[in-house]
Design goal:
- The chain is of the alpha/beta class and about 240 residues long.
- The chain is built from 9 helices and 7 strands; from the N terminus they run E-H-E-H-E-H-E-H-E-H-H-E-H-H-H-E.
- The chain has one domain: NAD(P)-binding Rossmann-like Domain (Rossmann fold), CATH 3.40.50.720.
- It has a 7-stranded parallel β-sheet with strand order 3-2-1-4-5-6-7, with helices on both faces.
- The longest helix has 29 residues.
Length: about 240
C-alpha cells in the first residue's frame, strides 16, 4: 500500500481512464476523491465498488470549468485535510477541422482541460506544499506531441497543459512535489473504438494494438508513488511506439 494515508483526487473519474486510475490508486491504499460532472451516477457506482473492496472513496460533483464551484468543492475537500495526489484527467473532445470549428467547440475543449487544471490544482496546491510531499499528474495526449487532423483545439489544450506541467514542476520541486503529464496514444475505450478500427490501429501503432486503460493506470500509479520522487517536469508517452 504505497499511498496509504494519502488522499487522491481524480477528476473525470467516471470515464474509462479515470475509473481505471481510480481503481489502481485505491488498490495502492489512497483515499479517493472521485470527481464527475455530467455522469454522477457512474462515479457513485465506482465509489461503491471501491468501498466494497475495502478501499476508501467519496464523490465530488462539480464543473471544473466553473471557477467558483471548483474552489468551493476544493475547500470542502480540504476541510478533511490536504490532498496530496491530484490526477487532472477531466477532458473532452469536440473535433472539427479548424475552418469549420465553432468558437463554442474551441472554448469548450480548452476550458475543460486547461481551465480545469487551474481551477482544481491552484486551490489545493498550498496545503499540499505544506506537507512537503505531493504528486500532480495531468492527462495529456499524443495529439499534443504529434498533432492530429480535426483536433486543433484538443492539441492546443493538451500542449498548453504540457507547458504548464513543466513550469509548475520548477516552482514546487524543492517542496517534495512532482508534476508530470501522461500522453496516451490510442487507448481502448468506447470513444477510441468508434474512431479507430483494427486496420487503422495496425497502421498507426507499431505494436499493432490499442493500449488498455489499466496500462495507463499502472503508469499513473507509479508516478503517484514514492519511487517516482526524482521524476518531475516530464511528459511521458504511452502509445505503443507511435512517433
Amino acid at each position: 500500500m504505497t499511498l496509504e494515508h494519502k488522499r487522491a483526487l481524480v477528476t473525470g473519474a467516471s470515464g474509462a481512464l479515470g475509473s481505471a486510475i481510480s481503481r489502481r490508486l485505491a488498490r495502492d491504499g489512497a483515499a479517493l476523491l472521485l470527481h464527475a460532472h455530467s455522469n454522477p451516477e457512474s462515479v457513485e457506482r465506482l465509489a461503491a465498488e471501491i468501498r466494497v473492496l475495502g478501499g476508501s472513496a467519496e464523490t465530488c460533483i462539480f464543473d471544473v470549468t466553473d471557477e467558483a464551484a471548483s474552489r468551493a468543492a476544493c475547500e470542502q475537500m480540504l476541510a478533511s485535510g490536504p490532498v496530496q495526489v491530484i490526477v487532472n484527467n477531466a477532458g473532452v473532445h469536440d473535433d472539427a477541422v479548424l475552418p469549420g470549428m465553432s468558437s463554442a467547440q474551441w472554448h469548450r475543449v480548452i476550458d475543460v482541460s486547461l481551465d480545469g487544471f487551474f481551477n482544481v490544482t491552484q486551490p489545493l496546491l498550498l496545503p499540499m506544499l505544506r506537507t512537503r510531499w505531493g504528486r500532480i499528474i495531468s492527462m495529456s495526449s499524443v495529439s499534443s506531441l504529434m498533432g492530429n487532423r480535426g483536433q486543433v483545439n484538443y492539441a492546443a489544450a493538451k500542449g498548453a497543459l504540457n507547458s504548464a506541467t513543466r513550469a509548475l514542476s520548477l516552482e514546487v520541486a524543492s517542496r517534495g512535489v512532482t508534476v508530470n503529464a501522461i500522453a496516451p496514444g490510442v487507448i481502448a475505450s468506447p470513444m477510441a473504438d468508434h474512431a479507430f478500427d483494427a486496420e487503422a490501429i495496425k497502421r498507426l501503432v507499431p505494436v499493432q494494438r490499442a493500449g488498455t486503460p489499466d496500462e495507463v493506470a499502472a503508469l499513473a500509479s507509479f508516478l503517484a508513488g514514492p519511487d517516482a520522487g526524482y521524476i518531475t517536469g516530464q511528459v511521458i508517452s504511452i502509445n505503443g511506439g507511435m512517433c
